[in-house]
Amino acid sequence: MVLIISAAIGAHIYKINQYKGVDITSYPFSYREPFVYQMAFIPRSEEAPSYYFEKANCLTKVKFESPTQMSYQENNGKSLLTVDFDYGTLGTMLELFRMLIQNDQAGLVKIHYSKEQIDIESSQMKNLKFSLVSSSRANELTVNPPAHPDYVFFNVKTNAKKLTMKLSGKRDENNYAEWLILDENQKVIKKVTAY
Q1: Which residues pair with 23 in a beta bridge?
Q2: Which of 8, 79, 145, 188 is most buried, by the most CB atoms less than 10 A from its CB?
Q3: How many Å apart are CA 40 and CA 21, to the nearest integer?
Q4: What pTM value is reported for the model?
Q5: Which region holds residue 6: left if phi is over 0, alpha if psi is between -120 and 50, else beta?
Q6: C-alpha distance from residue 111 to each of 12, 32, 70, 100 (Å)
Q7: Other CB atoms within 10 Å distance of the CB of residue 2
Q8: How many other C-beta atoms are found inside a 10 Å radius of the C-beta of residue 61?
Q9: Cα 73 from Cα 106, distance rounded (Å)
């Protein structure tokens, strides 16, 4: 019995310690090779965000049309995508350091960034949770970062196939930016704060 438990624990530790980094050297770029538990897609362009997946072994493809447009497909999984804007122009204009998308079997997800907004497309939007991380948290998350940073996730209960996230121009009492979540008809369906 102890041997079986030890083997199961060993297999789990092996799985979660698998990591693979992929350089994006040109666009369009598509990746369909075997996915491991943790994967990073790092563009050569300084203006493009970097992408880090946990539970990437449930992905079937990742595609980058341009530095500001990507999509990924998962098959019955629960991946977590972290998009790092770092200190590039896009992150500065959006006032974001990071964006996270927790996927709970939502299938195909498409993301497009501009300097004014973020567009997300999915036929199963209800199965996605988002976290917008303010650029004011950059030092906290890069200089002696915590092992498990606190992120505030939100979901959008909608049948819409496309969401647009835009800065509202307003701030809360701690100077964190407010974001508007709009449906495909540009109707505001939620307001959130990027912490």
Answers
A1: 42
A2: 79
A3: 5
A4: 0.87
A5: alpha
A6: 31, 18, 5, 12
A7: 6
A8: 15
A9: 8
